[in-house]
């Protein structure tokens, strides 16, 4: 499937434009009155696009096609799961007593996302799975609930917020790279749970900040980020070098 | 023009196409005599009609999908308008949170209206007294009960956007619609927290066993299903409800069905770790079809 069929990047929603950029290949189906049919076509037309990603030591490539987008999600879920697992394993936690069971729940949700994606990738795209990532959390101070202004390291809540907001933006930004409605559906089922996590953690840091804007945000719209921007941030928390240049191609 | 060549080409692209036509022999035999077949099969009109029939019920224009979303956003916005006007919300954090959410819903309404008009469609409309609005007679007297409606509207909104995102694959609408979708999930999480519930859908949710609200967490339809929705000054289409395939309920614990591949059981089927049913259900939100959302048991029953 050629790149020209893909919508262009737009950081902010632009109400005047979206519907005008129709896609030629779909037009046949639009006349036949079939959105689902067109979706299936795109899926079928692209299902052979996947290639095996490299997994050379120290370097992680994500491959191409829907498998690459799933592997990208799998990488992020690995990171989140590892972070919350470390929080859950603390013998002395700086979290408030009421927060501990909630963090345990979130840790389980992320572990489920990780294990589910691994299962789905191995089932549907055998041989393409990325290796286990080695997390690097030296920029997080697990003895602090939140960082003090003078601290250089993130506290647990700061890091949790960063991971959750990043995860939401990543799923929102990568959805358009997926060809298959099945995987888009799964991504949608996961991203709203990540958004629930994000809202919960934000409220712990600053009550009422569950969906408030930060720099660059558009009122009423959650963030969306392309894989390159997400992986630049995620790279800070992974030992291996992440190469996402072919994600969605 | 060779009819079978067209079907075969289409089958390469859409593996389900022959199912849609039941079988090519059956379709062809239904056409009448050889002479009639030859004449018909070379007619573009015939092909158009055939595809229209084969794909009936799967079609929605982007403006239809946006009008469906606008219907729900108008319902939410008007609910919050009434919620704020009722004067029961405690000043401070609670009032501020509801105001933040109301402002977001207003932004969503404005965005969807603009997008529909830009696409040449007619947006559905609603005011405090006409068109699409929350049925004022349903607004409870107490703050605690008012918040229950807020939770149900937000959780339903999340399910509704999820249910139609796939129809926007390949359009520039997909990303902004998903950006709205996850904001609605943040709203839902906050309102759940305000209510002392878990921020995510849980098997232990109080409203999941409340007769007035539990339909938001199940699936299926109670009333007759329509494919043309006449609301708020216009009419838009929604996909036909498929009674053989209701959406999963929020309590669903298996995911990932793809074509002939079966869903995997999250509790025991995704590796060596065994997960609890509650966590398996909470880790994934579930979609709803448009007909289910607009059913009288859910958002459809909240319209004035």
Automatic annotation (TrEMBL), chain A:
Alphabetized InterPro entries for the sequence: Ferritin-like, Ferritin-like_SF, TAT_signal
Highest taxon of the lineage: Bacteria
Pfam families (UniProt xref): Ferritin_2
CDD domains tied to this protein: Ferritin_like (cd00657)
Protein name: Ferritin-like domain-containing protein
Automatic annotation (TrEMBL), chain B:
InterPro entries for the chain: Ferritin-like_SF
Domain of life assignment: Bacteria
Stated name of the protein: Rubrerythrin
Biological source species: Hymenobacter artigasi
